[in-house]
Amino acid sequence: MDRYIADGKAELNAKMHDLMALYDGLGICKFYIVVSYGPTVLAEWLKPVHRLDDDARESHADRERIFTAKRAINVERGLTRKDDALPKRLLTVPQRDDIGPVSPQGMARMLDEYYRLRGWNADGAPTVERLRTLGLA
Question: Which of 59, 81, 104, 115 fits a disulfide with 43 by CB distance 3.0 to 4.6 angstroms?
Fold first, then answer.
């Protein structure tokens, strides 16, 4: 995947955010992903504590549920789309000599796609339907 092209990045980001929810639930450093504590091992560690599904492949729904619950709490506390932004310097300063700054239009497209994949509204809030699907409402 070309790191300098916005298209297709939303799904990868959603998967990584869901995976990172497991690390958060265990309270361990996210750098452990580098040393092979991936989703299968993390799901095993979390099972006794969080009553996660027995199958590590099915734990994706659990990871999504955790991440979406966190998002819903943050939305309740005032988080909106405007908070899902890159630092200003990434939007104004070229990243390399041959690569310009991140395109605000590209960032907006990625957010639109990300929210759609998540089942969130245009402002980044999980919809009631999505919360129900995940057993959160």
Answer: 59
